[in-house]
Amino acid sequence: MLNKITAPLKIAVASGKGGTGKTSVAVNMAAAAATALSFLDCDAEAPNAHLFFQKSSGFQADNPDEFFDGVEEFYVTVPEFNEALCNGCGFCKTVCKFNAITMILNKPLFFSELCHSCDACLKVCSMGAIKAAKKMTGKIRRKKIGGNIALTDGILNVSEAKSPPLIKKIVKKDSGPSLTIIDAPPGTSCPLVAAVYSADYIILVTEPTPFGFSDLKLAVETARQLKVRFGVVINKYDGDFGEIKKYCETENIKIIGIIPFDIQMARVYSGGGIIVDEMPHTRELFLKILENAVSEAVK
Amino acid sequence: MKIAVTSTGPSIDSPVDERFGRARYIIIYDTLSKTFETLDNETNLNMAQGAGIQTAGNMAEKKVELILTGRVGPKAAEALNKAGIKYVENASGTCRSAIEKQQTA
Questions:
Q1: A9: domain range?
Q2: Does the B2-104 domain belong in CATH 3.30.420.130?
Q3: pLDDT for A25-74, tens place per residue?
Q4: Considering CB atoms only, which of B61, B75, B84 is closest to A111?
Q5: Closest by CA position to B16, among listed B62, B60, B61, B71
Q6: Which of A12, A211, A231, B96 is deepest in the core (most CB within 10 A)?
Q7: Strand B2-7's sheet: what is its strand order?
Q8: What is the pLDDT of residues B55-81, one digit of tens each?
Q9: How far is B42 from chain A (nearest CA, A)?
């Protein structure tokens, strides 16, 4: 059914809690799909999907960038102040909603790490003392994996705090003509929203722990506010924690897959391997999750 | 000389607030007139980000020369340095006792 997708269709994989298995589910669905797709690793603070594709393609190098076919630098706009032209009016400070500018002795003092590139200061300065400058905050890396998968990931520079502009650009530019799988960052704040807001469907991966369950509820709230349809995958399921199933039933949320707790899967994962390749009997399981998500998305 | 102390309350006898940017109040004591004024810092306290640098900006505007507080963050420290305002960390007790301690020191 997957090769019948002819229009763009974005399936995002998210979780709330980190470590529930977003990347495992996303990578293994992609590997099981056997159809042309785009894979966007939007966990720009710590992208790791490429590690799994890297191992399966036998690549080894010290610089991970070498694995990719192309690396593009990513820039945001930040203001540059010319103190000689500044008359100290402080209007730039007043309009900055992010407190990135303060006035010290009638001169602006700017903190680029707080700047959200909104350009407000650039627009209000009547002295022409502020001009637009570019700041490189990360990289976008692309690689064709095998015949089918077009991998894109974003990687934020160390100490950079804001991943949403980078994530938005990847989702906008690199979503494919048919199926796109988005590996979203953890949490339920701006980076997550940037990765999933335009998705057709979100797979919320959870695990049967109180923490996994608690964050699932936050992720559900977020998806509902964004008005994106979603379903739940319970990973590492050992049958001991009944609350997630009960909750999904009460909230009328579809469970589109259950992945059993399996020490062998954990071994393959921690060795950087692709589970569906090294444990072929699991291929059907991951394919089914993707197919369920796609059929829910196009409903 | 104006000395500012971050304070948990509006009075000079309130305990010191250990936070600089997100201090609830700031007591500004004038060593010449021996009077103080209270600055309500609630706006900065509730800021999502950048509380320290904005509070530092206010201190520069008030022509404060010395700040007594618990700890100053790195960005606030940069702003205070630029403004030429000195600060002493690890202040404790009431604002009054912190000022007295500083003056005898």
A1: 2-57+146-298
A2: yes
A3: 999 999 999 899 999 999 999 999 999 999 888 888 788 899 999 999 99
A4: B75
A5: B71
A6: A12
A7: B35-40, B25-30, B2-7, B66-68, B86-88
A8: 999 999 999 999 999 999 999 999 999
A9: 15
